[in-house]
Amino acid sequence: MSTSNRPIAAEGSFKNRTVIVSGATGKLGRPICAALAAAGANVVINDVKADAVQELTDSLKSAGHTALLSITLSATSGPEIVAKALEQFGRVDAVINPTLGPIPWKPFEDLTDDDFRAAYENNVLGPISVTKAAWPHFKKQGYGRVVNFTSDSMLGFPTASAYTNTKGALFGMNKTLAMEGAAHGIKVNCVSPIAYHPNMERHILRFSDDVQHAFKTLYQPEANVPMILALVSEGCQASGEVFNTAGWAAGRNVWGNKKGVNGLETVDACLKALGQITEKGGDVFEPHTMVDFTEWQGKYVLNK
Ligand SMILES: NC(=O)c1ccc[n+]([C@@H]2O[C@H](COP(=O)([O-])OP(=O)(O)OC[C@H]3O[C@@H](n4cnc5c(N)ncnc54)[C@H](O)[C@@H]3O)[C@@H](O)[C@H]2O)c1
Predict the structure, then answer these.
(1) Which keywords appear in this protein's UniProt record, sorted alphabetically (predicted)?
(2) Measured between alpha carbons, how far is 247 from 225 in angstroms, rounded to an integer?
């Protein structure tokens, strides 16, 4: 429930829509499932934690919700998850993928290849598998919604390189899936949320007192849910975007480019230009597609 005590999504606004939530029993998954159920969606509650899946299902049932399907499988079993959803509800309209495996907090040199593999398996291949299995159904019905989860930790989070790597992977495919889905009514977006839990306390010490206070009082998991539900709703026209959400607020992350220096034909010339190239501030161009970027780059390379 939001601070205004209004429901996050209007009752009945997701009626007859089937939404698969993978990583459903985590900090974000739980309030997402609760808000979807309250809005009348058929909710597919998927997570690897059997007890937590059962407990969440029971709590939603006791709140009067019946259109629920509980699945204890890894998100990497996308085809099975989607098949079960179709068998129960006859359609799949959206997938929300807040999956997150255990984070190995280690300096880069101490992380093993298996640490990276496990992070990829849970955080990247899981969301890909569910999305890919739902995709042909989305195409057939001319409608689909996908939300993946990236993170501001991509801006640099020492000892979390296995994690940040996976968040970059989801960011990297966001625009491409949005483009591939465009002709089929499929909207694909990423959310970069903040959902506080007391076990994050040591990580927030780096912030100002005001922001630490906000983490503890305002940045609760459900404060990200309105935008997440908006992105899987019929009304969503945005696609290929990254929304940062926290404390009942949302903004858009941008990928900016600064005009470069041309005529760099020697290492010495490059080293001399580094200061200018890496200078912060100034004009930033935001390309919306790869073509946009390459055309803009071509102009300064060609001195136009
Ligand atoms: N919490 C934050 O502040 C924050 C910040 C930035 C990004 N995010 C991102 O948001 C998403 C959700 O975060 P959270 O805080 O709710 O995480 P969480 O750890 O509370 O929940 C993640 C859930 O995913 C489940 N899971 C793990 N591997 C799975 C698999 N292979 N198949 C199915 N389920 C699996 C876990 O059992 C767990 O229930 C994550 O992708 C995370 O990277 C969270």
Answers:
(1) Oxidoreductase
(2) 10
Say if residues 9 and 34 touch (Cβ distance below 8 Å): no
Q: Which residues are CB-neighbours of 14 under 8 A, at least 6 positions away?
A: 36, 39, 40, 41, 229, 233
pLDDT, tens only, 164-221: 999 999 999 999 999 999 999 999 999 999 999 999 999 999 999 999 999 999 999 9
pLDDT band at 2 (very low <50, low <70, confident <90, very high): low
Ligand 1 within 6 A of 48 CB?
A: yes
Q: Which residue's CA lies nearest to atom 14 of ligand 1?
A: 27
CA of residue 97 to ligand 1 center, whole Å: 8
Residue keyed to tokens 């939404």: 19
Task: Assess whether the C-beta atom of 100 lies below 6 angstroms from ligand 1.
Answer: yes
222 lines ligand 1 (CB under 6 A): no
Dump pLDDT digits (tens) for 229-240.
999 999 999 999
Helix axis angle, 161-181 to 126-141, nearest 10°: 10
Q: Which two tokens stand for residue 269?
A: 């010339």
Taking the CA atoms of the chain, what radius of gyration do you get in angstroms? 21
Name the burial class of residue 9, with classes exposed (0-12), middle (13-18) and buried (19+) by CB atoms within 10 angstroms of its CB: buried
Query: Which domains are present in the chain?
Result: 18-252 (3.40.50.720), 267-301 (no CATH)
